[in-house]
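Lab notebook, bench 4. The sequencing result for the construct came back, and we need a structural model before the next group meeting so we can plan mutations. Quick request posted to the team channel:

Model the 3D structure of this chain.
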Amino acid sequence: MSDEATELDMLLSLDGASFEAAAGYLVEFTVKRTDTAPERPHGISYVLVFRPVHGEPFVRFDNAHAVARPGGRFVKGAKAFDHWHRSPDDPGRPYVFTTAAALLDDFWREVKRAMAERGIPNDL
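Done. Here's the predicted structure in token form:
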């Protein structure tokens, strides 16, 4: 099995997992295999979220839908739905999916950033 396939299997194994990142804050994973398509060229549908127990996500990486491209609808961009939200108000910005491991690294980096910005103690 290739490293890429192993990484993808590891990401898929997180499906349904929910962890307390700090008191009152959760990290949640939804990851499913899908048919390969221009919108999901890596063959997975994913949502990775960091949020307060009773609140909107502070960080969200997903490929559930397309996001508006800078410059409006007339700007050509990638067909892939991969994007991330930096805050609860962020409508989303394109994310370049390279590997499952890179996705997890990028997600955890943003979780740590969000925790630091909000003064949430962490040992991540």
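The mean pLDDT is 89.
Will bring this to the meeting.
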